[in-house]
Amino acid sequence: MGAAGGPPDSAPPGHGGHAGHAGGAPARGPRGTLQRMDKGRVHRVVAVGSGKGGVGKSSVTVLLASELRRLGRTVGILDADVTGPSIPKLLGVPGPLLDRGEGIEPAVSRAGVPVVSSQFMVEDEQTPVIWRGPLVTRLITQFFGSVQWGTLDYLLIDMPPGTSDVPLTVFQTIPIDGMVFVVTPQELAALIVKKAMNMARDLHVPLLGLVENMSWIACPHCGQRIEPFGPSRVGKVADEYGIPVLARLPIEPWISELGDAGRSDERSSPEITELAAAFERAVTEATKGSMTVL
């Protein structure tokens, strides 16, 4: 890849529909409309998003994937935050992505979670990816359709902030089974996450539930719960949209420490275990009677 994430050698070559991974580039339907790609052997595809940055969405994605892996599920992560990738750092996965002619091979974490990310395509972790929208969206479709994901119970897509090119591409071309939304207690975070939820709903993507991150902290002396960012608003938002609260995650110093060390997958907590169980219930409920929403 060129300096500063320059095209065109930065994007991996496309491959069409090899056995063992999701199928090729999105096809065009009547009047040029995009058709969703085939899942291959990926059973469930779930996006994790928030609409805004800074709420810990990537950390929640990694903690959820790691907990599902501990439960014996096969899980992969597609890092769709092309210009601000976090997953490789959190998991300590250096890459690279390889292509031996049968599709792109993902990097794999120590716990056995396959990962694809734009971070694996730059010279070092401080090199920016400076691409226009069409190149970014092309890369996202290749990350899904041209990667040898193998058989997965879940593929989690770590979404970027906002409601523009990348979310639109993901919703229109990748067979999403639903989306989990991460929010923090502040009213501003609730306002922005509603934009992402409305976008998903308008594009017929099931809303699986809400995770309130950094919801509370336990006093180190008495154990009492303290709400440093104010009272929780997640229940009100969930009721407004008719979806469940999957978990309220506390502020835990070890999450930051392990993330900085690239070892986010090494530890769990009762709240993360609860999140994984609630997530699986929500996915099962959302996919009853159909494989995906068209």
Summarize the helices and strands and which ones pair or pack:
Blueprint: E1 42-49, H1 57-70, E2 75-79, H2 87-91, E3 98-99, E4 104-105, E5 107-108, E6 114-116, H3 133-145, E7 152-158, H4 165-173, E8 178-183, H5 187-202, E9 207-212, E10 217-218, E11 225-226, H6 234-241, E12 245-248, H7 253-260, H8 270-286
Parallel strand pairs: 1-7, 1-8, 2-6, 2-7, 8-9, 9-12
Antiparallel strand pairs: 3-4, 5-6, 10-11
Helix pairs in contact: 1-8, 3-4
Could you please describe the fold and organization of this structure?
The structure is a single chain. With 294 residues, this protein is an alpha/beta fold. It has one domain (42-286): P-loop containing nucleotide triphosphate hydrolases (Rossmann fold, 3-Layer(aba) Sandwich), CATH 3.40.50.300. Helices cover 31% and strands 17% of the residues. It has helices spanning 57-70, 87-91, 133-145, 165-173, 187-202, 234-241, 253-260, 270-286, and strands at 42-49, 75-79, 98-99, 104-105, 107-108, 114-116, 152-158, 178-183, 207-212, 217-218, 225-226, 245-248. The strands form three sheets. It has an eight-stranded mixed sheet, with helices on both faces. A two-stranded antiparallel ribbon has the order 3-4. It has a two-stranded antiparallel ribbon with strand order 10-11. A hairpin with a 4-residue loop joins strand 3 and strand 4 (104-105). Helix 1 crosses helix 8 (270-286) and helix 3 (133-145) runs parallel beside helix 4 (165-173). The longest helix has 17 residues, at 270-286. The chain is globular and about 60 Å long.
